[in-house]
Specification:
The complex is a heterodimer of chains A (149) and B (754). With 149 residues, chain A is an all-alpha fold. Chain A has a domain at 49-147: Cytochrome Bc1 Complex, Chain D, domain 2 (Orthogonal Bundle), CATH 1.10.760.10. Chain A has helices spanning 2-18, 49-57, 96-100, 107-115, 117-120, 134-147, and one strand at 29-32. In chain A, helix 2 packs across helix 6 and helix 4 packs antiparallel against helix 6 (134-147). Chain B has three domains: 23-258, 2-Layer Sandwich (Aldehyde Oxidoreductase, domain 4); 266-338 and 402-477, Aldehyde oxidase/xanthine dehydrogenase, molybdopterin binding domain (Aldehyde Oxidoreductase, domain 4); 346-382 and 490-753, Aldehyde Oxidoreductase, domain 4. In chain B, helix 3 (123-130) crosses helix 4, helix 3 packs antiparallel against helix 5 (167-194) and helix 17 (656-676) packs across helix 18 (728-740). Chain B is globular and about 80 Å long. Classes of the chains: A mainly alpha (149), B alpha+beta (754). The interface between A and B is large, with 33 and 55 residues. Strand 1 (29-32) of chain A pairs antiparallel with strand 12 (305-310) of chain B, so a sheet runs across the interface.
Chain lengths: 149, 754
């Protein structure tokens, strides 16, 4: 008699693992994002020009800051540079060449200067800040312009 | 009264000689009455050979001799085996047994996985699973072994590989019979064609020859004619002195492909013509809960994502690649339902066990085994000892991740997966999709490890559901984290044990009570020892984590409980651990011989080396008696495994190299669990996630292992896959006691010396 009970238990152990639930649960929620073979949706928001420009500006930060009121280091603080008269930041030891200029920086002049600092302002010594890549330069200029808006 | 001596074999009844069997009668069908077992042999209507022939003998020139063997025009013999190959070598050894009886040339033998068709139900294994005490048990089982268990097996969907059973059931009973029967049919066909007596025909290396007339032929030449011969279901099998392949370490047929990388495992499935998508899943952290809602806003923006599904009992992302799917599914915020289980930590789980044990007290609970009067004997004993033992939950952690590829189209479903239970998987899928079983095809190649993990098919069901919901062919893979934390487990348990000793230290009484009794039924009974008063009781308690058979199942738990406690009794009696056990094995000569031999090869009786000590344990499981001595090195204060000696008696070992390989594997598996194995719970969820915190023994931590074999008989009565495991933990713990005087009553061991 006990044998039968044991047999029932053993069989039950097999059965237990064999038995599925009575009714498989249905799909609770199904989100179809795209079908296989379709191109992927854009990933998050594409980087804006400003964001790209901020990234590109990183190469300038060794010498320049854009934070209002922060002390200049090797290069002058560029906060509100657009619209500012060239070479006019109080206390910064500009080259004579730049100090004597009296135009106000704008997008075009920034672009021309960054492309060839000594060409645009002969005697200027920001040669290390030359940005030869057009796109990168445009991004930096765009970023600086945006800070002034 | 209970049978306290599992493994004792009654004499096998002589079967009547040749009966008139046709192929129709080869697979008998039994009749089952509800609840109990009914004896009867029926003949299955329909010819399984015709139905199966297209699946297994598709090529031209192939003639299906019977369901287990095919012979083709190139004289290649293919053994069709109904068990899966998960690295244990079953395919090869089953082929070896068939080939020996058939007198085939081993170089011309191949092994093929039997299709997951109901006709390959493993009669013998089903019989073993439902007659746990002994294979050749009471008379009421014997006469109907073929018929009855076909029915039970069909009903239970058994095409099972597990329980260390393939060789000693299918191999010993079906493969050998098939091989011998086929040989006889070939001989009969040649005898007819040559006009000579069958008794004068010799078979050897896939050739038939008649010396007197100088004739010879390959098996292939008579294969077709042989199929017309009457089939003998009870042919005379070879005796051990006639074995040519059996008993020898024939090279395994699956090893070359596994070395050169061409072996295909479930996860390698790349079905032709299908553009697979990949699914990663998250199952509930706490068992029994479900996903109420999900915030997939981040996941849907992630690369490669196709669909995101809340299936209730799991959340899935289907994407172009598995990596993308897994990244995305882990970016979903899932709100899970609340669990009403009181178990949040392992202390809570052990408290649940304790409540059940407290309620059972000294003599309550369900009786698992009883002899004499343990309660009385304990009360009157000269001295008593008692102890409480605990073991934790363990994961299987097979190296091949859990996976399933599913393609559901036009009312049919194809499944590619690694599974130990292909027919069960087939049923599950058919049930979920509302199909007939015939419309579901399971393709199941090699398994990259299982250890019982693949005895369930919940992951197959998941893949089928995702394929159904999306309409895509999809390969679903569980991450290692998912398989460590959301699977099914070897149970934890607590055991309270008492022993009563006589004046001279002799063990007079033994009582144990614990809460988890699954399989095999005899694991909890110290039957080999002659203890006059024994009681074993079960006080059931619920498990927080779902149960799944784990290599050696209950033996992995009870082996540690029993062999550690016997060691305590030996120590209380002031006796040597081996001598004490020998004194209790008076009625078990095979066990005694095994224990004596392990003492001999381990140098048990010699003085211990500096900083080292030895521990011993002996457990019979799945028909094989294994005694192990573990030597630990405690010279730096933490237990290091130095040496392990194991002696095994399985009756007769079919392939010694394969057998040793499996015993060594069982030992390493058992020592890994003993040293590091533990799953902790926090808020009801498993803490461990991958191999950095669910640790394995590394190569530098594995001891030297020596395995010696005793063939006490002519036939294999014991398995190889699991028996090496149960003695490992207790022998290790007993060695630590010998070295330090600290008795370890919990596992794992390393953290107790941190």
């Amino acid at each position: 008699m006990l044998n039968r009970a044991i047999i029932a238990v053993s069989l039950a152990t097999i059965m237990l693992s064999a038995c599925g639930s009575s009714e498989p649960p249905q799909v609770v929620e199904q989100i179809v994002v795209r079908e296989p073979g379709e191109p992927e949706v854009a990933i998050a928001a594409p980087l804006t020009d400003i964001a790209l420009g901020e990234e590109a500006f990183q190469r300038c930060t060794a010498c320049h800051t854009v934070e209002a009121g922060a002390p200049s280091s090797a290069g002058p603080n560029l906060h509100a540079i657009v619209g500012r008269t060239a070479g006019s930041l109080e206390g910064f030891p500009y080259t004579e060449a730049l100090a004597e200029e009296d135009f106000a920086w704008d997008a075009a002049s920034l672009d021309a200067y960054l492309a060839d600092p000594d060409g645009f302002v002969p005697g200027s010594d920001m040669l290390i800040g030359t940005v030869t890549d057009d796109e990168e330069r445009a991004a930096i200029v765009g970023y600086l312009v945006s800070l002034s808006e | 009264m209970n049978d306290l001596t599992p493994g004792e074999k009654g004499t096998k009844k002589e079967r009547s000689g040749l009966s008139k069997w046709t192929r129709r009668g080869f697979i008998g069908a039994g009749v089952l009455a509800g609840g109990g077992l009914l004896i009867g042999i029926g003949v299955r209507p329909g010819n399984p050979i015709d139905r199966l022939a297209p699946k297994v003998a598709g090529g031209a020139g192939e003639q299906l001799i019977n369901s287990w063997v095919k012979i083709d025009a190139d004289n290649i013999v293919t053994a069709i085996v109904p068990h899966c190959e998960m690295g244990q070598g079953a395919h090869s050894v089953l082929g070896q047994m068939l080939a020996d009886e058939l007198d085939a040339d081993w170089n011309l033998v191949r092994v093929m996985q039997a299709p997951a068709d109901g006709s390959y139900v493993v009669n013998d294994t089903a019989r073993m699973f439902v007659a746990p005490f002994t294979m050749n048990a009471a008379d009421w089982i014997e006469p109907t072994w073929n018929g009855l268990f076909t029915q039970i097996a069909r009903m239970a969907d058994v095409m099972i590989t597990g329980g260390s059973s393939s060789i000693r059931t299918t191999g010993q009973h079906s493969m050998r019979i098939a091989g011998a029967a086929a040989r006889k049919m070939l001989v009969g066909a040649a005898a007819d064609a040559w006009g000579v007596p069958a008794s004068e025909i010799v078979t050897r290396d896939s050739m038939l020859s008649h010396e007197a007339s100088g004739r010879s032929a390959t098996f292939a030449e008579f294969a077709s004619a042989a199929a017309e011969q009457p089939m003998d279901q009870t042919p005379v099998l070879k005796t051990a002195d006639q074995y040519r392949l059996m008993g020898r370490s024939m090279a395994r047929t699956d090893i070359p492909a596994k070395i050169n990388g061409t072996a295909e495992f479930g996860i390698d499935a790349m079905p032709e013509g299908l553009d697979l998508s990949y699914a990663a899943t998250i199952r509930p952290p706490v068992p029994g809960t479900s996903a109420l809602r999900m915030d997939a806003s981040r996941a849907r923006e992630m690369p490669g994502v196709l669909q995101i599904l809340n299936m209730g009992n799991f959340v899935a992302v289907v994407a172009d690649s598995y990596w993308q799917a897994n990244q995305a599914v882990n970016a979903i915020d899932i709100e899970w339902s609340q669990s009403d289980s009181p178990v949040k930590t392992m202390e809570d789980q052990y408290a649940v066990f304790a409540d059940a044990l407290d309620a059972a007290g000294a003599d309550g609970g369900e009786e698992a085994a009883a002899r004499g009067n343990a309660g009385e004997a304990l009360a009157n004993a000269a001295s008593t000892i008692e102890a409480e033992y605990r073991v934790p939950y363990l994961a299987h952690a097979p190296m091949e991740p859990i996976n399933c590829t599913a393609h559901y189209a036009d009312g049919k479903c194809d499944i590619w997966t690694s599974t130990q239970v292909p027919l069960m998987a087939r049923s599950e899928v058919a049930g979920i999709l509302g199909l007939d079983a015939e419309d579901v095809t399971i393709h199941h190649p090699y398994l990259g490890g299982a250890f019982g993990r693949r005895l369930g098919s919940e992951y197959v069901g998941m893949a089928a559901r995702v394929a159904q919901a999306t309409g895509y062919p999809v390969k679903l893979i569980w991450s290692r984290e998912e398989d460590t934390q959301k699977a099914l487990y070897r149970n934890a348990d607590t055991c309270r044990m008492r022993a009563g000793l006589a004046e001279n230290g002799g063990l007079q009484a033994y009582d144990s009570v614990f809460t988890q009794r699954h399989d095999p039924a005899e694991a909890c009974v110290p039957a080999m020892y002659s203890i006059p008063n024994t009681s074993v009781r079960v006080a059931e308690a619920p498990l927080h984590l779902p149960f799944q058979a784990w290599r050696s199942v209950d033996h992995s738990v009870q082996g540690f409980f029993i062999e550690s406690f016997i060691d305590e009794a030996a120590h209380a009696a002031g006796a040597d651990s081996v001598e004490y056990r020998l004194s209790l094995l008076g009625d078990s000569p095979r066990h005694k011989a095994v224990l004596e031999k392990v003492a001999e090869i381990s140098g048990w009786r010699e003085p211990a080396a500096e900083g080292r000590a030895k521990g011993v344990a002996i457990v019979e499981s799945f028909g094989t008696i294994v005694a192990e001595v573990v030597e630990v090195d405690m010279s730096d204060g933490t237990p290091k495994l130095a040496n392990v000696w194991a002696v095994c008696d399985a009756g007769y070992v079919m392939n010694p190299d394969g057998f040793r390989n499996q015993i060594e594997g069982g030992i390493v598996f058992g020592l890994t669990a003993a040293m590091y194995g533990e799953l902790e719970l926090r808020d009801g969820a498993i803490v461990q996630s991958n191999f950095h915190d669910y640790k394995m023994l590394r190569m530098n931590e594995v001891p030297e292992i020596e395995v010696a074999l005793i063939n006490s008989g002519d036939v294999p009565v014991g398995g190889a896959g699991e028996p090496g495991l149960p003695p490992a933990a207790p022998a290790f713990a007993n060695a630590v006691f010998a070295a330090t005087g600290r008795r370890l009553r919990t596992l794992p061991i390393a953290k107790q010396f941190a």
